[in-house]
Amino acid sequence: MDTGLKGKTVLITGATRNHGRASAIAFAEEGANLLLCTRSSMDMLEETARLASKSGVRVVTGACDVTDETQVDAFVQMGLTEFGHIDVLVNNAAWRARGDLLSIDEDLWQTALGVNLHAPFLTSKAVLPNMVRNNWGRIINYSGISPFRGASGQGTLKMATEGLTRAIAQEYGRYNITANCIGPGSIAVARTPGQETGPNEGHGSLNIPVPRQGTVEECSAAVVFLASEQASYITGQNYLVNGGAYFH
Amino acid sequence: MNTGLEGKTVLVVESVNHFGRPTAVAFAKEGANLVLASAQSSEALEETARQVSDQGVRVITGACATGNSSQLSELAQRGVAEFGHLDVLVNNTMLPVAPESFSELTFNSWKQKIETELQGSFFICQRIVPLMVENNWGRVINFSGLAAFQGSDAGSSASEYGIIGLTRGIAREYGKHNITANCICPGGAQAPGESDAQVYPPSDSDPMPRWGKPEEIAYLAVTIAAQDAGYLTGQCLMANGGKYLL
User: Fold this and answer.
1) Does residue B141 sit in helix, strand or coil?
2) CB neighbours of B139 closer than 8 A, spacing ≥ 6?
3) Cβ(A90)–Cβ(A23) under 8 Å?
4) ∠A38-B117-B130 over CA atoms, to 5°?
5) CA of A78, closest CA in chain B: separation in Å?
6) What distances in angstroms separate CA B145 from CA A227, B85, B138, B169, B187, one per listed residue?
7) What is the reported pTM?
8) Which of B119, B164, B174 sits opposite A159 (nearest CB)?
9) Does A104 touch chain B (CB under 8 A)?
10) Phi and psi torsions of B92, nearest 5°
11) What is the mean pLDDT of chain A?
12) Measured between alpha carbons, how far is B182 from B127 in angstroms, rounded to an integer?
């Protein structure tokens, strides 16, 4: 299938490992050039770039704190200078608001709010003018399983991200710009210490129709599809990749 | 219908604006005592209190800035001191803003909306739910709206959908304490004195082509809070005349 992504520019935040790295490689295999950022893990980002470059595409990397308006604007401007256009935005960077209602303190809330919700706001704001000019664009945000299983911290922020996605979908469909979420279930990933799935977040059981954890490649396949030319009439949706853990 | 709400204590966050006042009055009609908060003028707050008192129940009031969980927590503690327990939270935290296109919406305006409504609601629930855990009974009633579903201005859509996530989280985490959490999602119901920021006028193509009435929203809050609604949790009650079907 020709996804129509050859020569497009794809911006992926937090592309150091896991979903971000898998998506970078998957887009590169479709011939898309990559604009990748991380806040602080440049070594890992460069490894992602090296792996993606094997497909013969151009990869530009940079450090960017996606919760900082000035840094986001500067990074996107740099990308536009390098590539001339940014066509796909994948807001992959995430910070887990681990815990339940009573255990999440102000600091954790602020960090998770910044990375999960403010960042997609800022990156979308920064890339949309170029997408409008090109009359084409794709924005892909990450929701998850927490909205369905219930988790005060994660579920609140993930559903807020879905709300933002719907607002963008509503406003920009006329420019052939779609905005969607993917909602991974329990996926085998490496996690930063302290960022493991919490006991109340409902990920524990694999007593689900597909009785195993998913892979990041199974998620990036959905991301690539949502970015493809073929997905041009899909917008404002949340694509669940969860082995049937929740039917929606 | 006996709602079992007589003698319960109901905290109404922002009991002047949006559906706060009709909701407070509806609970008073069921014999619940009220703790009323508002960021509006003391005259407006006292008007709600007067209407509540007319039903023969007890009421205390306090000024609280919108989304200020510390002030609200202090008021709730006063409520517990006065009435002995706090049973129902009606979280009507709203920061009405004029809808702006995404391209016009500044980061500061966005943050103000999110931090007042969504973050405010999170920490309000964090402060109030433990008071319900103490009694092994409680009802959390949040307000969301049509913007969450249809996509509207980004701040409203994100905040309103996020509040549904918060509702589901509380439902999951506190069900074992006989605490339910649900969301009322009005759309096209006219709140008394509401600005024109977030309204959905009736259209001929709507299943019910008329405005919703404030008491039709307030009734839902009382229904969710009722003793016999104890198995209803984590849900959205869409009160929009059929404008959007969940």
Assistant:
1) strand
2) B87, B88, B89, B132, B179, B180, B181, B182, B224, B225, B229
3) yes
4) 100
5) 20
6) 29, 30, 23, 18, 6
7) 0.95
8) B164
9) yes
10) -105, 40
11) 95
12) 17
Among B63, B69, B2, which Cα is nearest to B31's? Answer: B2
Q: Is B106 on the interface with A (CB under 8 A)?
A: no
Residue B199 has pLDDT above 80, yes or no: no
Instruction: Find the CB nearest B151 among A155, A169, A202.
Output: A169
Phi, psi of B85 (to 5 degrees): -165, 160
Q: Is the dihedral of CA B126, B186, A168, A197 positive or negative?
A: positive
**Is the confidence at residue B195, as pLDDT, over 70?**
no
User: Number of A:B CB contacts under 8 A?
Assistant: 141
pLDDT tens for each residue of A61-116: 999 999 999 999 999 999 999 999 999 999 999 999 999 999 999 999 999 999 99
Which three-class secondary structure state does DSSP give residue A12? strand
The structure tokens listed for B160 are 């309103």
* B112: its two tokens: 């103000």
Run of H or E including B132: helix B120-133
